[in-house]
């Protein structure tokens, strides 16, 4: 399996700086990634020759970095799972996750999306480990992004921290939400006595969810929601806190008589592609169970 490499040509305005400065400031490598390249089997080459980070660059120089081979965790067993790939290039893999499949392995699951992605990588002879950019609960369907190398993961993680990656969800909640749009600004923390359940509590972490009514149903509402923060179970907790738990979400007060999972779908994802240098937008169609629920509720 070949290691992953990237190449750049030094521009006029970049001439005269050190390789270290070029990689950290112009190409946005993190210091930890650069350290791994230097000490864990990667390489830095300028015009085809091995060089160190103190090398002074000139206009037109060709800089190539090769990342170290990534070690796959022994607990991550590849599994042949059908993947619904929405987008793929040498840096990212975007998958439409079905419900009832965890994003990452757990003690209570027989498989996970991450294991399916690892099997897919190995079938293509890609030396990659798993870098999840965002995760969904087991029963939540929709868009999950994987970075194919640590550098790509670092760049998208920064976008998430800076609120530059945008995600929208569709949810069907109990009751008629009268406001056409609104927001829930309420801190979230663990519920006393539970390692799973979260709740709104004054000493919790800041959390903000914005919502917009898409369709009024019979004693239910289809909402479009956007997360301004990324707390565990955020949408589920916030909707329950205002008296509109998700259908099927019995952990937070929803009924399971019409759907056997929380009616939540990660429908849209927008991010700035740092290597193509443009914004990309993707959508994932609703699952059959939520479509049926909208038609019959």
Q: Key features?
A:
297 residues; elongated; ten-stranded mixed β-sheet; four-stranded antiparallel β-sheet; alpha+beta; Structural Genomics Hypothetical 15.5 Kd Protein In mrcA-pckA Intergenic Region, Chain A; Pseudouridine synthase
Instruction: Categorize the overall geometry.
Output: elongated
Give the number of domains.
Answer: 3
Q: How far from one another are the termini?
A: 52 Å
Please state roughly what percent of the residues sit in beta strands, choosing from under 5%, 5-15%, 15-25%, 25-35%, 35-45% or over 45%.
Answer: 25-35%
How is the quaternary structure best described? single chain
Give the topology string: H per helix, E per strand: EHHEEEEEHEEHEEEEEEHEEH
- What is the number of beta strands? 16
Cα gyration radius (Å): 22 Å
Estimated helix fraction? 10-25%
Q: Which homologous superfamily in CATH is the superfamily of the largest domain?
A: Pseudouridine synthase
User: Quick one: biggest sheet?
Assistant: 10 strands, mixed
- Contiguous uncertain segments of 5+ residues: none
Q: Which topology of the largest domain does CATH recognise?
A: Pseudouridine synthase
Please state the average pLDDT score. 94
| Structural class designation | alpha+beta
């Amino acid at each position: 399996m070949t290691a992953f490499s990237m190449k750049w040509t030094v521009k006029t305005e970049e001439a005269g700086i050190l390789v270290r400065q070029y990689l950290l400031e112009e190409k946005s490598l993190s210091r930890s990634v650069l350290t791994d390249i230097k000490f864990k089997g990667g390489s830095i080459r300028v015009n085809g020759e091995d060089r160190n980070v103190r090398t002074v660059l000139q206009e037109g120089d060709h800089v190539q970095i090769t990342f170290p081979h990534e070690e796959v965790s022994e607990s991550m067993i590849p599994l042949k799972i059908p993947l619904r790939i929405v987008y793929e290039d040498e840096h990212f893999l975007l998958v439409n996750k079905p419900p009832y499949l965890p994003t990452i392995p757990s003690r209570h699951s027989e498989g996970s999306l991450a294991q399916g992605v690892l099997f897919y990588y190995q079938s293509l002879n890609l030396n990659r480990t798993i870098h999840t950019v965002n995760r969904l609960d087991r029963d939540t369907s929709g868009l999950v992004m994987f970075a194919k190398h640590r550098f790509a993961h670092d760049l998208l993680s920064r976008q998430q921290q800076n609120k530059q990656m945008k995600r929208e969800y569709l949810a069907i909640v109990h009751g008629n939400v009268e406001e056409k749009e609104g927001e829930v600004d309420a801190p979230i923390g663990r519920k006393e006595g539970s390692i799973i359940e979260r709740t709104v509590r004054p000493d919790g972490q800041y959390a903000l969810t914005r919502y917009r009514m898409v369709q009024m149903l019979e004693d239910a509402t289809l909402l479009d929601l956007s997360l301004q923060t990324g707390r565990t179970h955020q949408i589920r907790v916030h909707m329950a806190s205002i008296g509109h738990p998700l259908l099927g979400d019995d952990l937070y007060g929803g009924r399971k008589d019409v759907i056997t999972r929380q009616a939540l779908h990660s429908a849209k994802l927008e991010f700035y592609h740092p290597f193509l240098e443009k914004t990309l937008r993707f959508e994932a169609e609703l699952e059959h169970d939520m479509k049926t629920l909208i038609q019959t509720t």
